[in-house]
């Protein structure tokens, strides 16, 4: 009776308006201790939402995430697995909650699972149908404890889908995507080693038999019994399930651990159990996550990041977390995009240009090992030299005009060009300025044949490289970070017009030159014709990102740091024992930071793929979704300073590195 009244009140005050429901449930989730100990605060907030709704002033806007300026993993559960087990083992019996404690779904909301189930069943709007069916079933059932069969009998009435087919699809999906919480798996194993009796206690519509299968699949063995609310018509929320468990085990003391403060702590303690609160990873992490993503990919992204950073298994560096949060989804989505282009264009080979292609190639090979690809040494400096006679204006623009008034001497410019032994009538120690740049270029043009001659050995070496890498290829893809696409443009010209390779080249770019750049339309013809294809943004793709991405605010630098290789820049090529070998400039910079960033990106890609490999369409991550977390981080100046404080970067292809921050 009381449960029925509560459900009716909830329907009237919360469920009647989706905006109220979203905000109220978010408030309760993020303030569980307050909601438990001072329920009046929640009622006041709910009253405020209802008044605003009645007055028509309840705004339908996304919640702006908070900004974390340090390591999020420092904010996770504060005890080690051994310490947690020790605390739980103070009792005779240890009870574990299931979902969001022992078992994780790869979403920040359990309701997102219904998107996958609906896709399997071929039923549009299934998520909302499934949610409303559960609410209706709970109204009909004793104490509101519905079983999965109760729910799907109502789904059948609403959709015509046979109840058994619906249930099987949902159970199959749960088995495919659910995984063990690695921290709690360690806790579980420690508790077992201490010889304690283990039970599982859950408020759930799933049967104890199925939960047993789920636990077994994910490595949780050796428990005595599973207590599920829907089978006993009583739940943890009001303490009745705990009282039943306590009665069954007589005078034994019981410790319980779970992620819901009200059900797993407050109610457990009121029922005489020792309780340990394990904060819900999604409640902890979502305040820092962006909501500016599509429904399914966004929920998966948030859930996977929250699980890794907040489960308590490990603490990470700022660089690792930057890679995991921002770079992982871009790398994964970009690799999926590359694979689609490879298949659609029936490409013979993919060339991942160094250095931007370094980590992309590693992730791509794990995802698509059957595709023909190569890590290909190439750079802006090498391309400018090899393409000098084809693109002389670009040669002088890149090596001279882009570096005016940047503090470089004439000798430093000549060294970057590889012609330091030549003289052009300007003192080597004189700074390159707007005033002398035209004079320098004029003198260089007079000796242009001699400049080209300096690159003869490089040309011979690169010709050998092309013969080896493009042998038997007619259609190839080149992969680069961005921005103008000149890497692919010059490569195609050098390969075909200079060395007669006769290959079709399509350049793939993560992003293009952006709106604020003076040469924003540098490659517009190539983009329009499809010879260059962008992933995240261009003048015609995600134009708002194209306008917001700002190289002058170092957005390009931060983006490239996600993909830079732990090796020096290539400045040219030479023949060594008859084979083409890259010539590296100086030493590798930022090696530790880069390796940490890459480790984060690789872990995200593996976590995401492992969780959702049964649903391959989830790998189709749009460029907008991929860029969203990076975009959010660009607004967190303090965090960027902390991540890149010790890093250097060469923005001008001159060999001179400067501090990023």
Task: List the SSEs and their pairings.
Blueprint: H1 2-15, H2 18-30, H3 32-37, H4 39-55, H5 81-88, E1 93-96, E2 103-104, H6 113-121, H7 126-140, H8 148-159, H9 163-177, E3 179-180, H10 182-193, E4 197-202, H11 208-217, E5 225-228, H12 229-232, H13 240-248, E6 254-258, H14 261-270, E7 274-277, H15 281-285, H16 295-310, H17 318-344, E8 349-353, H18 358-367, E9 373-376, H19 380-386, H20 392-399, H21 410-417, H22 434-446, H23 448-453, H24 456-469, E10 475-480, H25 486-498, E11 504-511, H26 524-529, E12 532-537, H27 543-548, H28 555-561, E13 569-576, E14 579-585, H29 591-612, H30 623-634, H31 637-644, E15 648-649, E16 658-659
Parallel strand pairs: 1-4, 1-6, 4-5, 6-7, 8-9, 8-10, 10-11, 11-12
Antiparallel strand pairs: 2-3, 13-14, 15-16
Helix pairs in contact: 2-4, 5-10, 6-7, 6-9, 7-8, 8-9, 17-18, 17-29, 17-30, 18-29, 19-20, 19-25
Notes on the protein architecture:
This protein has 661 residues and is an alpha/beta fold. The protein is 52% helix and 11% strand. It is built from 31 helices and 16 strands. The chain has a five-stranded parallel sheet, with helices on both faces. The protein has a five-stranded parallel sheet with strand order 9-8-10-11-12, sandwiched between helices. Strands 2-3 form a two-stranded antiparallel ribbon. It is elongated. The N and C termini lie far apart (63 Å).
